[in-house]
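REQUEST ID: PR-0412
SUBMITTED BY: lab tech R.K.
PRIORITY: routine
TASK: structure prediction, single protein chain
INPUT:
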Amino acid sequence: ASSGDDKTVRLYDYRRSVNLAVLTGHQEFVPALVFQPGGKLLASGSGDGTIRLWDTESYRAVAVVEAHPHWIHSLAFSPDGLTLASASSDCCVRFWDIRNPVQPSLIGQTADPTGPLYAVAFHPRKPILAGAGEDRMLRLWNVSQARSPRCIQSFEAHSRAVASLSFHPGGAAL
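STATUS: complete
OUTPUT:
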C-alpha cells in the first residue's frame, strides 16, 4: 500500500506491478498507513485528522474516525491487532479499540508530550508503545491498560525532531 499528497491510498499487486485499488475519501495528505496483523484491515491517517479503516478484500472504508483535531502523522497496530495507536500534531497518542472495526472506540490517550508526535511503534512482545516527535524526546509508555497509558521512560533521542521509530522484530532494540 502507498499513500500520498494526492489524498489517496493505493493498493498494489507488486508481483505484477498492478494497481488493485485507489481508495479515496481523505481531504488532506495521507502520511500514515499500517496493515493490521493478518492483513484484513488497512488503517490510513490524514492531515484532515481522520483515520479510515479499509477492508483489504472489498477495498471499501468500513469506518471513518474523527480521531484528532490536527494532522495524524503515524499509526501503529498492537501485535494482537485489536488496538490502533495514532500520533498527531495535537501532542498526544490516542488508542482505539477496533475489535468492532465498523465502530472503533477511543479507549485512552497520552498526556505528557510537549510537542507534535511524528512516530509511534508497539513493542512486538511487551505492552509498550514508543512515541517521539518534535520535542526530540523518545517516550515509552506502559500500555497494559490502554485507558490510562503510563510513561515509564523518556530521554532525548536526537538533536532535532524524531521522524520515525521501529522496534526490532524480537523486541531487543528500538
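NOTES: Residues 21 and 59 are 7 Å apart (CA to CA).
REVIEWED BY: pending
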